[in-house]
Design brief:
The complex is a heterodimer. By secondary structure, chain A is mainly alpha-helical. Chain A has helices at 2-20, 41-50, 87-112, 119-144, 156-159, 167-184, 199-212, 216-229, 287-292, 318-323, 379-384, 396-410, 415-428, 447-462, 468-474, 478-481, 492-498, 522-526, 550-554, and strands at 32-33, 68-69, 252-256, 266-267, 284-285, 329-331, 334-336, 344-347, 352-355, 386-387, 391-395, 485-488, 512-513, 519-520, 531-535. Classes of the chains: A mainly alpha, B mainly beta. At the A-B interface, helix 1, strand 1, helix 2, helix 3 and strand 15 of A face strand 29, strand 30, strand 32, strand 33 and strand 34 of B.
Chain lengths: 565, 1177
């Protein structure tokens, strides 16, 4: 009996032991291993693709500028409360450095590993990674000034002691990377392969960072080189350029692809009118932006006889009506009219009048300043509140204006400057730049006048495209433009009493506009004819640079904080 | 009855007989048969229980028996068991009998006996209910040759002459038995008045006796009035009762106050409580069940010292998080949970009603046998098993409802508009109109306007509309226990259904557990356990709590005609809740345990365990598009509800499997006053997780929640998998001398797949000693002291829980969109996202424990006290590395943490006549401080850095509120927008270490004291009087720095939300007098300064101590005279209230346990009112 049991037990234990010894050398099942990565063309391409994640190419939001209102809400930038704890500070810092480190990884692998690739391809791949690295560093120095610069992985112990490199040194390295890329990147990609970095993009971003740092010659030459490539041209229709149906037209130098069906889009409900189920321009263009568009005679609103404050969209640069929805115009199936007495509105789809939810006469939360964004909005926005138009990071019009700006600052005012600026302006009027009678062509050669015109031009051309914040910073205009109250419409009863009943709708008076295209409605506010929405604040003593994220300063004694934070 | 008999026969067919099995399988392989039988066994044993319960009533004179090569003694014993007949025989004589094989099916007793005695050298005679066995009269010289069994020859001594006659002594005794027997019947009860099954009842001085049945009843024939009955049962004091003239006895056994004899479950075994040298706390299953919680984790709150349970609300089915002796590490501080010896995923996978006992191993000496993963403590759960002779069927039912303990309050519509105006006016710099949002007219006419047109001028009571006053719940539990001898089974089925405080949310759970004990022979026994759990959490697509609280009353949840209203321009939580879809999450857990015990000789047990566990999760989340239309025209589209823009279906499946294999050798030997125990073991664990998910968006139809109904464009799916494994060798030696001096040593050697080959193995030793002073001669044992023991222990524990592949720098895959020409396409991406440190290895926690157990007054008063000290070294944490490296923080062994604490427990129980009472109290405290963290800091409102407490508050110091403009102008401020009424922060430092005239997060924040709960206490009181029982449990926190979180005091949350009522009248305001402002509790109303004013600072800290009654239950046992009439063993009825009467300083409307971190808020804590019945058959 015992022997029999013993035998059974023994067999059982033996079989279970064999069965139950798990392997302890377990490797990730659904991830790759970094030890063996970068071994072939496919893997390198996957790593290069990674450098174009939208997170690494953020566009500065318009809410950091005077082009924008969000009802009575300000951002840490526009209320001067920014500090090293602000999440955006850390997220920008982290994202750009992630891209830097991943670009470095590709470069180092290609330079040191045996990868079966012909030298030309290998160099092109390195060029791509250096292009991305240069772009990332150019963003970092724009926000933070001096930053940590590295091209090889820093050992961990060292990293805790690594301090910041002077901005000028970083800038030189950026130029070097861009130059390497310019020499080796293709001008375009065939339709069978993903469009990544191009020679044109490298030139344009080099021009941009040079311009931001007053390296006018470098900016001029890079922009000129791009123009001379002949690859790029302005899209004939300004309004169409920003729609999701317009992708990779010859004006686009660099853009981030989006597609709602592939899961990449943004919810734009806050921009849409309430008649379309939107939030009535919770996010929308400011009065200041509306006031900044020149009139059809090329003059600002406070100088032009053509400006009519009762009909502010009349006789304005066409980009005004492309950017902001004109009153009484058809928009997304309705006639748009924020007038407090327009209680019913025509629904163009049904042909019937219905309650107008886009006037504060009916709806408390209709647009607080009466304005709704139009730029880039097409019919597809309204049905599911999703917008998947490409994010334009750089377009040819910007290159033309950068070229002009560099030349103006250098004092090299010649026909090429006027041509570049006029091409951009004429396109808005849908005429040839040479047809100078059909649009307010720029003719002056006075440097200060041209500088002023250029600043108006940039504000009109690039509204809501993410360039305004850095323009305000580099021109040092932020301390005026962002230190200003934002106004909106009076509440309906007061509005009727003080404005509409007196025939003063829309603007009771003409705002003041300065040479930097900064528009001032304080006069209106002081007379009680407009409602103060926000009181913008900008601390010029510190805000031209962002703070370094607090965490970086706290764990690293060699990491200095920017002054004032 | 006939049916049952049939089952009976089938059972034997399935279970035992070789013949029928062979016939059935037609000679298929043995392995197949084994599998078939194992599978059937589970089913069969379940029905066995049903059978056993009924079997007691079968006609006694019939015998069914199948034996092969059994001794006559075995046969007679079997017959005795079936018939109740007594046998009188001589031991020597019976040895001479030979073995018999028989197969009987319901034959007469007489026939059975004739077969059994055929050709035997003995014969029998029946006298009433006693069978006397005696030697055959020698009629022939040589009878059929006797084949003595085994060593039968040795009994052949003495003369044959002796055996020709019946032994006169035997005859005398036998006759006496049947002549003078007195029949005694009665019932054995425990202290609570419940029938006590399985109690052994013995006639003193004889081997005669019986055991009580499932209801505690017994029937016994005693020889005479002088007989004395001994009632004994494990855990109870034995009683001797002289029979005298009684024929009916009611005996109440008092639980053994020598609780030291009580057995406590420890790692890989059990130990007598008095032998413990480590810190082990335990709680009985009945105490767990008495709390009436659905999840075990919640029932442990306040139940044991050093065991902290925190809850994040009482959502249906929610558990709590358990910490043993506080925080051990920065990473995962969840204790290891072991059910019946096998690690499980979640403590909540066991039905509280199935729990026999829960032991918590708190110090290293107790836990280090589980070395790996034991650093945060070990919870051992044993589930109920059948006891010998215990036969019962019982059913528990309870139903009741839940009510929120407290709900935050918000201002009404008029105050909302007034205060909103004030806030906006403040944010406009108090310039311009004082009615910037709502005109004076509107506010003063609002009530009238609302009456005229509630659609344009709504007043919505969001909380009243969405939250129900109460939520229903019910619970059913059916237990079947039965079996004796070779097979004992306990089967239970539980079902719980719990509703929520809002529509569309329920939690359903069904559990089944079958625990079998099988005795194969004297050397082999087995336990076969199976359990299954299925839970379904069904809830609306969106959790409405946050928006229900914060939605302002001036927005319409529904139009006056009942349609979904616009809310705040589409943010309408009511619409989302009503029509926005659902989330169904199903979890299934199927597990089993097969354990074989092999005892080759008396002191050695070899055990093999195999335990598979499979958890399957599936979810179907269906979000529906909810459009809404204008209030005056149902055909005019106005918008879409914010969280329901499109119809989206997401389905996911998860499969988690793990397998545990163990081999244990246990050797126990007592020699004189020496007692030795040795354990050696091996354990292997493997786990793998696979998950997939798929979704489609933009459905055109709202009522087909299936993937094939969605469009092709908006498809998405993903999947991943991971695995891990460990292997361990361990051993333990226990020795004690005279139960006076104890020493125990453990060691465990663990290898984990989570670490690199070269850093994989860790060794975790421990030693503990105990000294029972009360057994020393120099202690006077006549005083009140009845027991005194000192304990000390030291040991090391390990932790490896930090991701599955922390030492490997993995490449993560993803997708990014690119243009191909003018098309957009998705391309695969790859990147190393984390920095990896290859030499990462075990985290080790060293702990010391000094303890004292003292009992007084015959063990009625019991005290336990412990002081402990733990140090965690090489702590696994995600090392905070400079962000500019571009990697996420890598896992590494960095840092130390030290914790010190103490625990105290006191209990008293006694009985005075019919009055029984017991009280138990526990109190503990722990404080953890971080040592060197390798430069790492975990920043935020709660900080972990060198020298700080674990999760210490970190923020600004404050000096009240700014009162005047001058004060603002002359004081450093946090930003340029600061005005009177904002929080005044102190400038404590700057870049150069001295105040710099600015308030900055980098230099002016400091440590503000620990955030963890301190001085935790709990306890319970039990009172009983005759059939009445009262149970009260309470729990609380003695001291805690708690924060008034932003959600509690943010006005206009998300810029349109309501205003907390606690602000009204208590905030700084330009409309107040300066005196009123001086005493204002809250800063001025502002959105601009919201994040500045509500930033973490000592301004918002308060004492969050609380006291709470966890449970109060009043139970009543219906008198047995009543229940017997309806043939029911016993009925207990109870009413119970849980989580009520809370004392705390929390702001009005906030329960101290409600999870309100930052701007989020959890499901409310609820009070449960329950009514129930427990019926025993």
């Amino acid at each position: 009996m015992i022997m029999k049991s013993l035998r059974n037990i023994f067999v059982m234990i033996l079989s279970l032991t064999v069965w139950s010894c798990s392997d302890l050398d377990l490797n990730p099942l659904s991830e790759g291993s970094s030890e063996t990565w970068f071994s072939n063309d496919v893997e390198i391409n996957m790593s290069l693709n990674d450098l174009y994640k939208p997170a690494f190419w953020p566009v500065d939001p318009t809410d950091w500028t005077d082009d924008w209102i969000n009802r009575e809400v300000l951002t840490p930038i526009t209320s001067a409360t920014i500090n090293g704890e602000w999440a955006t500070v850390a997220s920008r810092w982290n994202a750009h450095y992630q891209a830097v480190s991943r670009a470095n990884a590709v470069i180092n692998a290609l330079e040191t590993k045996e990868v079966p690739l012909v030298d030309e391809v290998k160099e092109r791949y390195i060029a791509e990674a250096r292009f991305v690295r240069a772009y990332q560093y150019s963003r970092l120095i724009s926000y933070f000034g001096d930053v940590v610069y590295y091209t090889q992985t820093i050992p961990l112990e060292e990293a805790y002691k690594t301090g910041r490199t002077p901005k000028s040194q970083v800038l030189n390295a950026i130029y070097e990377d861009f130059d390497y890329a310019i020499a080796r990147l293709p001008e375009s990609y065939p339709a069978t392969s993903p469009t990544r970095g191009t020679k044109g993009a490298a030139l344009a971003f080099k021009a941009r960072i040079a311009l931001y740092n007053q390296d006018w010659e470098i900016a001029r030459d890079a922009a000129k080189a791009l123009i001379d490539m002949g690859t790029y041209s302005l899209h004939p229709d300004f309004g169409e350029l920003f729609l999701s149906s317009t992708r990779r037209v010859p004006e686009i130098v660099h853009s981030i692809a989006r597609s709602a069906t592939l899961g990449v889009s943004e919810n734009i409900r806050a921009y849409l009118p309430r008649n379309n189920g939107g939030w009535g321009g919770q996010f929308g263009p400011s009065w200041s932006l509306l006031g900044s568009f020149l009139c059809t005679d090329g003059l600002p609103v406070d100088e032009s006889p053509f400006f009519d404050p009762r009909d502010p969209f009349k006789n304005r640069d066409p980009r005004c009506s492309y950017t902001i929805v004109p009153f009484q115009s058809a928009f997304l199936g309705f006639i748009y009219q924020p007038h407090p007495d327009s209680l019913e509105i025509l629904n163009l789809n049904t042909g019937r009048y219905q309650v107008n939810n886009d006037t504060r006469g009916n709806q408390q939360f209709a647009s607080f300043n009466g304005l709704i964004l139009k730029k880039g909005v097409d019919e597809t926005w309204a049905d599911d509140f999703l917008n998947d138009s490409d994010i334009i990071v750089m377009r040819y019009a910007d290159v033309l204006l950068m070229y002009a700006e560099a030349k103006i600052e250098l004092g090299e005012i010649d026909d090429s400057v006027l041509e570049a600026m006029n091409r951009v302006r004429a396109r808005a009027y849908k005429v040839d730049y040479k047809a100078t009678s059909q649009y307010p062509a720029i003719t002056t050669t006075d440097r200060d006048e041209l500088r002023s015109i250029l600043r108006f031009e940039r504000r009109m051309e690039f509204a809501f495209e993410g360039t305004r914040y850095m323009d305000l910073i580099r021109w040092r205009v932020a301390e005026k433009a962002l230190n200003m109250p934002n106004y909106g419409l009076l509440d309906p009863d007061e509005l009727r009493a003080k404005v509409t009943s007196k025939g003063l709708w829309f603007f009771p008076e003409v705002p003041a506009v300065d040479e930097n295209a900064v528009v001032d409605f304080t006069g209106l506010g002081q007379k009680g004819l407009a409602k103060l929405l926000t009181n913008g604040q900008f601390d010029a003593s510190r805000q031209y640079l962002w703070p370094i994220p607090s965490k970086e300063v706290l764990i690293n004694e060699n990491m200095d904080q920017n002054p004032g934070y | 009855m006939k049916f049952l008999v049939k089952v009976n026969r089938d059972l034997w067919d399935t279970y035992m007989p070789e013949r029928s099995r062979e016939k059935e399988n037609g000679g298929r392989g043995t392995s197949f048969r084994i599998i078939m039988n194992t599978m059937r066994l589970a089913v069969v044993v379940f029905f066995m229980a049903v059978f056993q319960v009924a079997a007691g009533n079968l006609e006694a004179q019939q015998v069914s028996l199948k034996k092969k090569d059994a001794t006559l003694l075995e046969v007679l014993q079997a017959i005795r068991k079936q018939t109740g007949y007594l046998f009188v025989c001589d031991k020597e004589m019976i040895r001479k009998t030979h073995k018999v094989s028989l197969s009987l099916d319901k034959v007469d007793l007489k026939v059975a006996l004739d077969i059994a005695f055929k050709d035997q050298p003995v014969t029998y005679s029946i006298h009433d209910k006693t069978i006397i066995v005696r030697e055959l009269p020698r009629r022939q010289e040589s009878p059929a040759p006797v084949r003595p069994a085994g060593a039968g020859g040795e009994g052949a001594t003495g003369t044959e002459q002796d055996r020709t006659q019946v032994d006169p002594r035997l005859m005398e005794r036998a006759l006496k038995l049947w002549e003078a027997d007195i029949q005694v019947r009665g019932r054995v009860l425990d202290e609570s008045g419940e029938g006590l099954p399985g109690v052994s009842i013995l006639i003193k001085g004889t081997q005669r006796g019986t055991t009580s049945d499932g209801s505690g009843n017994f029937l016994l024939n005693v020889p005479d009035k002088e007989s004395v009955l001994i009632f004994s049962f494990v855990g109870y004091v034995s009683q001797e009762i002289p029979v005298g003239n009684q024929t009916e006895l009611q005996v109440t056994l008092v639980s053994d106050r020598k609780v030291l004899e009580e057995v406590v479950v420890v790692g890989y075994g059990v130990q007598k409580k008095q032998d413990l040298t480590g810190a082990v706390a335990s709680v009985k299953g009945e105490e767990v069940a008495a709390r009436r919680t659905v999840q075990i984790s919640q029932a442990l709150q306040g139940a044991m010292p050093g065991v902290t349970v925190t809850r994040g609300g009482n959502a249906p089915g929610s558990g709590g998080s358990i910490r043993i002796r506080g925080i051990t590490t920065i990473g995962d501080s969840n204790p290891l949970v072991i059910v019946d010896g096998v690690p499980v995923n979640s403590i909540n996978d066991v039905n509280p009603n199935d729990v026999e006992e829960i032991s918590v191993l708190k110090d290293a000496a107790s836990a280090s046998i589980y070395g790996s993963r034991a650093a945060a403590g070990v919870i051992l759960i044993t589930t109920k098993r059948a006891r010998e002779g215990h036969l019962s069927l019982d059913y528990n039912f309870s139903m009741g409802m839940e009510k929120a303990t407290r709900l935050p309050e918000y201002v009404d519509a008029i105050r909302y508009m007034e205060m909103t105006n004030e806030l906006r006016w403040n944010d406009n710099g108090n310039t311009g109109t004082e009615y910037p949002v709502y005109s004076q007219d509107l506010i003063s006419n609002y009530l009238n306007l609302n009456r005229e047109n509630p659609d344009l001028y709504p007043i919505t009571d969001w909380v009243g509309l969405i939250l129900n006053r109460n939520a229903p719940r019910q619970s059913h539990q059916l237990n079947l226990t039965g079996g004796s001898g070779p097979l004992k089974t306990k089967a239970s089925i539980g079902y719980d259904k719990i509703g929520a405080l809002y529509e569309g949310r329920t939690y359903d759970r069904a559990t089944i557990r079958v625990n079998n004990d099988i005795k194969i022979n004297n050397y082999l026994s087995a336990q076969v356990d199976l359990y299954y759990l299925r839970s379904l959490s069904d809830q609306p697509y969106i959790d409405p709590i946050f928006y229900t609280f914060i939605s302002a009353p001036v927005y319409a949840a529904r139009w006056s005609d009942g349609r979904i209203g616009a809310g705040k321009t589409g943010n309408n939580i009511y619409g989302s809740l009503k029509e926005g879809g659902f989330r169904k999450d199903t979890r299934q857990n199927l597990g089993g345990r097969l354990s074989l015990d092999f005892k080759p000789f008396k002191d050695l047990t070899l055990t093999g365990v195999f335990a598979p566990n499979l958890i399957m999760g599936s979810h179907k989340h269906f979000r529906k598009r909810v459009p809404y239309y204008t209030w005056n025209d149902p055909t005019v589209f106005e918008g879409v509800i914010e969280f329901n823009l499109s119809t989206l279906l997401t389905e996911a499946r998860k499969e988690y499997q793990h397998y545990t294999t163990q081999f244990l050798a246990n050797y126990n030997k007592s020699l004189g006053r020496h007692s030795l125990g040795i354990l050696a073991g091996y354990e292997n664990f493997y786990a793998r997780n696979d998950s997939i998910s798929a979704s489609r968006d933009q459905y055109t139809l709202n009522n087909f929640p299936y993937l094939n109904q969605g469009p092709l464009e908006f498809r998405n799916n993903s999947g991943n998998a991971w695995e891990n494994a460990y292997r361990s060798y361990f051993g333990r030696i226990m020795y004690n001398f005279d139960e006076k001096y104890y020493i125990q040593a453990n060691v465990r050697h663990d290898g984990s797949s989570r670490f690199h080959k070269d850093h994989r193995w860790g060794t975790f030793p421990s030693v503990s000693v105990g000294w029972v002073l009360s057994r020393e001669n120099f202690i006077n044992d006549t005083g009140p002291l009845s027991f005194l023991k000192l304990r000390a222990s030291w040991g090391n524990l390990g932790n490896e829980r930090i991701g599955n592949y922390p030492y490997q720098a993995t490449i993560a895959f993803g997708n990014t969109l690119f243009h191909k020409g003018t098309d957009v396409s998705s391309e695969l991406t790859a990147a190393q996202t984390a920095y990896a440190i290859q030499n990462i290895s075990w985290e080790k926690t060293e702990s010391f424990d000094f303890g004292l157990d003292a009992n007084f007054f015959s063990n009625r008063l019991q005290l336990t006290a412990d002081y402990f000290h733990k140090t965690t070294r090489d702590m696994l944490l995600n090392l905070e590395i400079p962000s500019f490296l571009g990697f996420s923080n890598p896992a590494q062994n960095a840092g130390t943490m030290k914790s010190k604490g103490w625990e105290f427990q006191a209990g008293w129980q006694d009985q005075a006549g019919d009055f029984r009472y017991g009280i138990s109290l526990n109190l503990s405290d722990i404080r953890s401080r971080l040592g060197n963290l390798g430069g790492t800091q975990f920043l935020g409102d709660k900080i972990k850095r060198e020298g700080s407490e674990f999760d210490e508050w970190y923020g600004y110091r404050t000096d009240g509120l700014f009162q005047t403009d001058e004060e603002v102008a002359n004081t450093p401020t946090i930003n340029a927008s600061v005005r009177p009424g904002d929080v005044k922060y102190l400038d404590i430092s700057g870049p150069d270490g001295i105040p710099d005239g600015k308030i900055t997060p980098d230099y002016d924040r400091t440590l503000l004291g620990g955030s963890m709960p301190r001085m935790l206490f709990g306890g319970n009181i039990r009172l009983g009087w005759k059939n009445l029982n009262l149970h009260l449990a309470f729990q609380g926190v003695g001291k805690q720095n708690s924060r008034i979180t932003p959600i509690m005091v943010t006005p206009l949350h998300t810029n349109w939300g309501n205003i907390p009522a606690i602000l009204d009248g208590n905030h700084w305001s330009v409309y107040n007098t300066p005196e009123q402002n001086l005493s204002a509790r809250y800063p001025r109303l502002s959105r601009v300064q919201e994040s500045s004013n509500l930033a973490m600072s000592d301004y918002w800290l308060f004492n969050g101590a609380y006291f709470r009654i966890k449970n109060l239950t009043l139970g009543y046992d219906l008198p047995t005279t009543l229940t017997e009439k309806i043939k029911i063993g016993g009925i207990n009825a109870f009413v119970s209230i849980s989580d009520f009467l809370t004392l705390s300083k929390y702001p009005r409307g906030w329960d101290p346990e409600t999870a309100a971190e930052g701007n989020s808020v959890g499901y409310p804590i609820t009070t449960q009112y329950m009514l129930g019945l427990a019926v025993k058959f």
